[in-house]
Design a protein that fits this description.
With 280 residues, this protein is α/β, with parallel strands linked by helices. It folds into two domains: 3-221, 2-enoyl-CoA Hydratase, Chain A, domain 1 (Alpha-Beta Complex); 224-270. It is built from twelve helices and nine strands. The strands form two sheets. A six-stranded mixed beta sheet has the order 1-2-3-4-6-9, with helices on both faces. Strands 5-7-8 form a three-stranded mixed beta sheet. Strand 1 (21-24) and strand 2 (30-35) form a beta hairpin. The N and C termini lie close together (10 Å).
Length: 280
């Protein structure tokens, strides 16, 4: 790797978050983003939206972070946009300002989907509005049996089409189920979310965060370069035909085979030992 390419990559273990909490494991491989306004169920603000966008845009260049946990503080995930710090000001904005805002919120989803690190959402309590979108935009979702998830945009006179919901949610739970949730704005129970495939696991509240971090650690210690390729393919192949899908995956797999991880995994298997993945 050239000096210029190497200089573009940097450790993010010591990133100083301003509008949420950022913590990493000792080796920096697992990062935890915690929305930390528990007194109001962790709502988002203009500033936290912007910082989340910028953080996820920077993560492709992280030299240490390999997996991310997204969580909320105080027993709730995220109640959506702050009523008084976002919703009320929006009612006074002109169209150009409104479009700038909705594009910024959409940029958070795009940045989450484009960063190579798998994102594990640890959802408990309230997960509503933009909070439900953050969970939706994650790659893996764990929840407690008490979690309630609502895409409640129609409850405030808005379309259910927000931050990619009409495109992404049907791909996760199916068109009919997504339509019902997006039209009604009702809360999806944890049991429904698990049965429909929105949630990968339901976990007791006292184990949720530890289990999410353990899963992220498993991903971080695995073939993380290949995980990033898998995430890219999962995103790209939405808009492809069968021929393009198969060819795209042929190229992706050949790239992974050219890494030392593939050879090291074989050598570890032959020697009956655990492989060590280095991403090169």
């Amino acid at each position: 790797m050239t000096d210029a390419m190497q200089s573009a990559r940097k450790p993010m273990k010591d990133y100083a978050a301003r509008h949420f909490r950022w913590e990493t494991s000792e080796d920096g491989r697992v990062a935890v983003v915690t929305l930390n306004r528990p007194d109001r169920k962790n709502p988002l603000t203009f500033d936290s939206y912007a910082e989340l966008r910028d953080l996820f845009r920077a993560l492709p260049y992280a030299s240490d972070v390999r997996a991310i946990v997204l969580a909320g503080d105080g027993g709730n995930f995220c109640s959506g946009g702050d009523v008084f710090e976002i919703i009320e000001p929006l009612t006074h904005m002109a169209m150009p300002e409104l479009l700038a805002f909705t594009r910024m919120t959409g940029d958070v989803v795009k940045a989450m989907r484009k960063c190579p690190q798998p994102i594990v959402a640890a959802v408990e309590g309230i997960c509503a509005g933009a909070g439900a979108i953050l969970a939706m935009a994650s790659d893996i979702r764990f929840a407690t049996p008490e979690s309630k998830t609502a895409f409640l945009f129609t409850r405030v006179g808005l379309a259910g089409a927000d931050m990619g919901a009409c495109g992404i949610l049907p791909r996760i739970i199916g068109q009919g189920r997504a339509a019902e949730l997006l039209f009604s704005g009702r809360a999806m129970s944890a049991e429904e979310g698990f049965a429909w495939g929105f949630y990968n696991r339901l976990i007791a509240a006292d184990s949720l965060h530890a289990d999410a971090q353990a899963y992220a650690r498993m991903l971080a210690d695995g073939p993380w370069f290949a995980h990033g390729m898998t995430k890219t393919m999962l995103n790209q192949e939405w808009a492809m035909g069968i021929d393009e899908m198969v060819e795209s995956e042929a190229q992706a797999q050949a790239i992974c085979m050219a890494t030392g991880d593939f050879r090291r995994a074989f050598e570890a298997f032959a020697a009956k030992r655990k492989p060590v993945f280095e991403g090169n």
